[in-house]
Structure formats: structure tokens, C-alpha cells
Design goal:
single chain, 647 residues, alpha/beta, Rossmann fold, GMP Synthetase, Chain A, domain 3, seven-stranded mixed beta sheet, 21 helices, 32% helix, globular, binds 5'-O-[(S)-butoxy(hydroxy)phosphoryl]adenosine
Length: 647
């Protein structure tokens, strides 16, 4: 099927019921069963969550589930446990020590199978090293690594000691690393020499070295050897993983922490320049990711489950590490690019390892469509039984292509809506129970109460668009913005007191299905990742030639949105294509290549309101080569519009 024929398919009202064979074996096999559990979860959440919590392994089981004094949420607060014990020890004790936890494929082609026993041993060794360096519960640890099994080891070793990890995506550059480590006040960093990416070595340690020239809190850096290119070494600060971890005992007593002990901080973009350190805590996050992984992906013992996200994003945290490992699943992890050595790499991996569940992003699916059907068609994808999508609304054409070409028309698709802040999947079909509609994330998960409201917070009728809010607390919700409680309250609970505001626009149809339309704030979604335009703007204005900058998103077939930067130069500087390229490069060096503006447009002035606020609506139209419509009377200087239009 080609792109053209997909586009002509009438998809608006297509419904795909769960295939009967799938439903017959599913954990939740009917709409009625879903509804019964859902009702129970919202009518009596205290009892529902307490009963569910009993599935975890506790040092001290909780006697109550929910404390909710909005926006303050606590779950299972008198309980005590250790997250790594729930992901490792209890499976080994249950006789699953020889089961493969991580089935890893390096980009150059090596395959490693790390069993639950081996993973527990390596986690314990690294934990012992960290303990010997003086790490104490609550200390923050930066993790800047590629997609290797050791990144999961690093996260779980932190969890074992009650340390708070902050994983920094390997695509971030030195300045972004520096800001995050400083905000977190990290004492330790775990990194690697480099990662294999698209046939080349992506240097990681050098970025850390550069960042650490301005991070006084970091004492030690543990360095895994992966790519073996020469790197600088700071004696007394840097420790080689193979030398120091290998020397430790493979037995490490877990730190027993309270249910609300912080587990990790993950930075995400907001509407102001500074990224927000989203803080997740232990038991609620663990339970939320564990249950959603089990029911949304319908996990079974013999599944080979592959989530293609990078562990540096929340999807990797929740659905490569904590969710699947707490279920004793076998997780496939791939180090490299999807087009290395050619555009068929993903399908080779599916065929080679008999992958049964594939969880990826719409931007990747659109890329596969572009690369052509011959790549998946040449491979045997018959092992697949379930497909997932996350990161942005999936366009129905891409959904249908995914369903037919990858899923062979036989695999249900779970379109999962959630956020860094929600920790776990909030809306999704349950694949054996809920009929799917292409482009809809369908129905709320247990305990989730989504509402579509207008500006004043009143629910809008079915079929109308509005703002997506969540009414009740859920176990895996963020607890605060690290070091900035005020920002937490304002960003998420300021608009609608007592209710969590997602920042997304959405609608609910007559069947009660949700359709998320995207962000309503100054945040863009590029390749399935939220980027705050403000952070990119502040990088641009840090350049000596730039006076002012405004960044907006423009619809992009591949990435979802592409970044367009409007830049006003200082008196001394002249617009030129060379300078435009230089400015894009400047952002790439500062923040990372994925944040690089696709286009720089020089503008003599930016359109502003009388109060000095940049009118992004106008810039968005211009970026998309449309003439701005709507009210422009609030423009401080109406002639600006003509200048921008080149008139
Ligand atoms: C934003 C969250 C959740 C992990 C990846 C991104 C958008 C995410 C969907 C979906 C429509 C989606 C939303 C959301 N989004 N999944 N299935 N359908 N939109 O995490 O960087 O925190 O971004 O991604 O706009 O608010 P994130």
C-alpha cells in the first residue's frame, strides 16, 4: 500500500473491534470487564488502589492508599519498599532468575541476553560502588548514557540505594547537561565514552567533561566503556566502570524507603525557558507503570516486548525499565538508528528476535512510510501480536499503514496518551476489550478521570473541543517540580484549582472516546518530544548577533512539528544564509541537534501586543506560509505585519 492510497481511505468513522482470538487470550477480554474495573476504580479508589498495591512486594505494607489535598498527592504513604526489589529480587526469588530481562542488540550487531539474575547482580555491584563512594538516600545522580543494558543497571542501582536519578537524554549537549545537573544538585554522574549511532560514534563523555567545568556539586563520574575512542580522564574524579564495578560484591542490601521517597527527576519543557524537573516518587509510580504495562500491553510470560523510545525520555523510564521489569517481562533494547545499516533494521530486529509487542512513535511510523513498504514486506513480521503508539496524535493514515503493513491487519493498536508528568499511560484502549478508532486514544485507564472543559472550567458537550484536565489524583502523578513548588502549583493547578491541567486540547466523541489534538501552550511537539520554545529562544538571544527571537512550530509531515525561529538581529549584524546556518548550529551546540530550528527567518521587528507580548498566532501563520487571519488590532504597531510579509 502506498502513501497515496492510504490518504484516500475514508477513515473518519472506521472502528476496529478487538480480534476475537486476541480477546479470548487477553488479560482483560471484554468491554464489560473494563467497565466494571473502571467503575470500581473511580467509585472506590481507596479500596481499589489498596488492593492493587498488595501486588507489590513491601517491607511494610501500606494501610491506606490516598492522601489528596490538591495539589498535594500522596499514595500508600505509610508503606515501605524498595523499587529495585520489585523489579529484580522478587522475580529471582520466584524462580525466574534465568529469564531474559534485557535482550539487547547493539547497532554494530552484537546481541546480549541479560537474565534477571545477572541484572540483579550487576545492579548490586554498581550499588555497592556508589555506597562505597558515600552515596546516601536522597542524593541525586545524573545519568548520561546511550541505549545499553547498563543504563537500566544505573537507574536500578540508584533505586536500590534510594538515590534519585536524573537521566539526561544522550542527544542533549553540554550546556543542557550542565543546567540539569546544577538544578538537581547532582553528586554523581554515570556516563559512557560514547554510543554507536548511525554508523558513527556519538561522543558522550566529552559532553559531560565540558558540562562539569561548571557543576560544582559533582564529585565522581563513573564511566562505562562502550565505543573505546580516546577520551580525557580526570584523575580522582573519573572511575572506570569495568574496573570499579567489577570489583564489588554482587550482593547489596536494598535501602528500604517510604512509598513517597523520590525515585527520579526528569526534565521536561514548559512555557518558560528553564526546563521543569518533574519529580516522581517510589510506590505510586511503580504501581502505575506496572499495571499499565501489564494491561495496556497485555503482557504475557512469552512476550518479547520492544519499546523503541530512548531511556532518556519518560517513555523509556516507564516502559523500558520500571513497567516491564516489574512484570518480569523480556524487554528488547536496541542501541542505534532505525536506518543502520539500512532502512529495514527495525524489521530485521522484529524478525530475528521474534518480537511480539512493538511500541513506537507516530514520527517514526511516518518515517517508515516514507522509506517504503518494501523494507517491512521483505521481513517476516508474523511474530507481532500487538502494536503501540505514543508521543503525539497519530494521524489516521499512519495508523492504518501501521495496522496493515506492520501489523498484517491482525494486531490491535494501542494509542497511548500520557505525559512526563503523568508518569504512566492515562488513556488508551485495552487491546482485548476496547474497539479502536484510528487517531483516538480511546478511553481512560483505571482511576483516571479526564474531563474536557472550557476556559471557565465548565465541561463542554460531547463532540466539542476544549481543554483536557484530570479530576482525581492517580498513583504515578508527579509530586512537584524539583526545587520549585510554586511553579508546580501554577503550571498544573493554576488554571483550574483542584484539577490537573494537562496543557492539551482534546475532544470527547459521542461514544465517550477521547481525541487529543495537541498542546495549547507555547510548547511544540517535535518528533514526539515536547520542546519549550522559550528554551530555544533563550539560546538564540545568547548569541552575540541576536537581539530578539521567537520560535514557533510549523506542521511537518515527518516530525509532527518543525521549528521556525524569527530572529531580530542587533544593529551591527547583517542577515545572511551563513548567519542563519550559524544560529541553527548555535542552538544545536547549546541544547542538542534535535532542538535545532529547521528555518531561521530574519525579521526587522517581531509582532507584539501593546503590553509587549509576542503574538505567536501571527508568527505561526507566517511560519506555515499563511497570511495571518483573525484579530490583529491588538498589535502595537500594525505596520509590523507588512514588514513581516515583505510588503
Ligand atoms: C505530550 C506529552 C508520553 C510520553 C511521550 C511524550 C503529546 C503524547 C500522545 C498521544 C496525542 C500525545 C501530548 C502530551 N502526546 N502521547 N497518544 N496522542 N498526543 O511525553 O514529552 O511529556 O509530552 O505529548 O501533547 O501532552 P512528553
Amino acid at each position: 500500500m502506498t502513501e497515496q492510497t492510504i490518504e484516500s481511505v475514508s477513515h473518519e468513522n472506521r472502528i476496529f473491534p478487538p480480534p476475537p482470538e486476541f480477546a479470548a487470550r487477553a488479560r482483560i477480554g471484554s468491554r464489560e470487564e473494563y467497565e466494571r474495573l473502571y467503575r470500581e476504580s473511580i467509585e472506590n479508589p481507596e479500596a481499589f488502589w489498596l488492593a492493587r498495591a498488595a501486588e507489590l512486594t513491601w517491607a511494610k505494607p501500606p494501610t491506606r492508599a490516598i492522601h489528596w489535598n490538591p495539589p498535594e498527592a500522596r499514595f500508600f504513604e505509610d508503606g515501605e519498599l524498595n523499587v529495585s526489589v520489585n523489579c529484580l529480587d522478587r522475580h529471582v526469588e520466584a524462580g525466574l532468575g534465568d529469564r531474559v530481562a534485557i535482550l539487547w542488540e547493539g547497532e554494530p550487531g552484537e546481541v546480549r541476553r541479560v537474565t534477571y539474575r545477572e541484572l540483579l547482580e550487576e545492579v548490586s555491584r554498581l550499588a555497592n560502588l556508589l555506597r562505597s563512594l558515600g552515596a546516601k538516600p536522597g542524593d541525586r545522580v545524573g545519568i548520561y548514557m546511550g541505549m545499553v543494558p547498563e543504563v537500566a543497571v544505573a537507574m536500578l542501582a540508584c533505586a536500590r540505594l534510594g538515590l534519585v536519578h536524573t537521566v539526561i537524554f544522550g542527544g542533549f549537549a553540554a550546556d543542557a547537561i550542565r543546567d540539569r545537573l546544577n538544578d538537581a544538585g547532582a553528586r554523581f554522574v554515570i556516563t559512557q565514552d560514547g554510543a554507536h549511532r548511525r554508523g558513527k560514534i556519538l561522543p558522550l563523555k566529552p559532553q559531560v567533561d565540558q558540562a562539569l567545568t561548571a557543576v560544582p556539586s559533582v564529585e565522581k563520574v563513573i564511566v562505562l566503556e562502550r565505543t573505546r575512542q580516546p577520551i580525557d580522564w580526570v584523575e580522582g574524579r573519573d572511575l572506570a566502570w569495568h574496573e570499579h564495578v567489577g570489583a564489588q560484591s554482587s550482593d547489596a542490601a536494598p535501602a528500604i524507603v517510604s512509598a513517597e521517597h523520590p525515585l527520579f527527576i526528569l526534565y521536561t519543557s514548559g512555557t518558560t525557558g528553564k526546563p521543569k524537573g518533574v519529580l516522581h516518587t517510589s510506590a505510586g509510580y511503580l504501581l502505575g507503570t506496572s499495571l499499565t504495562a501489564r494491561y495496556v500491553f497485555d503482557l504475557r510470560d512469552d512476550d518479547i516486548y520492544w519499546c523503541t523510545a530512548d531511556v532518556g525520555w519518560i517513555t523509556g523510564h516507564s516502559y523500558i525499565v520500571y513497567g516491564p521489569l516489574s512484570n518480569a517481562a523480556t524487554v528488547l533494547m536496541y542501541e542505534g538508528a532505525p536506518n543502520q545499516p539500512d532502512e529495514g533494521r527495525f524489521w530485521d530486529i522484529v524478525q530475528r528476535h521474534r518480537v511480539t509487542i512493538l511500541y513506537t512513535a507516530p514520527t517514526a511510523i511516518r518515517q517508515f512510510i516514507r522509506w517504503g513498504d518494501e523494507h517491512p514486506k521483505k521481513r517476516d513480521l508474523s511474530s507481532l501480536r500487538l502494536l503501540g503508539s505514543v508521543g503525539e496524535p497519530i494521524n489516521p493514515e499512519a495508523w492504518v499503514w501501521y495496522h496493515e503493513v506492520i501489523g498484517g491487519g491482525r494486531c490491535p493498536i494501542v494509542d497511548t496518551w500520557w505525559q512526563t508528568e503523568t508518569g504512566a499511560i492515562m488513556m488508551s484502549p485495552l487491546p482485548g476489550a476496547i474497539a479502536t478508532k484510528p487517531g483516538s486514544c480511546c478511553v481512560p485507564f483505571f482511576g483516571v478521570v479526564p474531563k474536557i472543559v472550557d476556559e471557565r472550567g465548565h465541561e463542554v458537550p460531547a463532540g466539542s473541543g476544549g481543554f483536557l484536565v484530570i479530576e482525581q489524583p492517580w498513583p504515578s502523578m508527579l509530586r512537584t517540580v524539583y526545587g520549585d513548588e510554586k511553579r508546580f502549583r501554577e503550571s498544573y493547578f493554576g488554571a483550574y484549582p483542584g484539577r490537573y491541567f494537562t496543557g492539551d486540547g482534546a475532544r470527547r466523541d459521542e461514544d465517550g472516546y477521547f481525541w487529543v489534538m495537541g498542546r495549547v501552550d507555547d510548547v511544540v511537539n517535535v518528533s514526539g518530544h515536547r520542546l519549550g520554545t522559550a528554551e530555544i529562544e533563550s539560546s538564540l538571544v545568547a548569541h552575540p548577533d541576536v537581539a530578539e527571537a521567537a520560535v514557533v512550530g510549523r506542521p511537518d509531515e515527518l516530525k509532527g512539528q518543525a521549528l521556525v525561529a524569527f530572529v531580530t538581529l542587533k544593529e551591527h549584524a547583517e542577515p545572511s544564509p551563513e548567519l542563519a546556518a550559524k544560529l541553527s548550529e548555535h542552538v544545536a551546540n547549546d541544547i542538542g541537534r534535535f532542538a535545532r530550528p529547521e528555518e531561521i527567518r530574519f525579521a526587522p521587528v517581531l509582532p507584539k501586543t501593546r503590553s509587549g507580548k509576542i503574538m505567536r498566532r501571527i508568527l505561526k501563520s507566517l511560519a506555515d506560509n499563511r497570511v495571518p487571519e483573525g484579530d490583529v488590532t491588538t498589535l502595537e504597531d500594525p505596520s509590523v505585519l507588512n514588514a513581516l510579509l515583505g510588503k
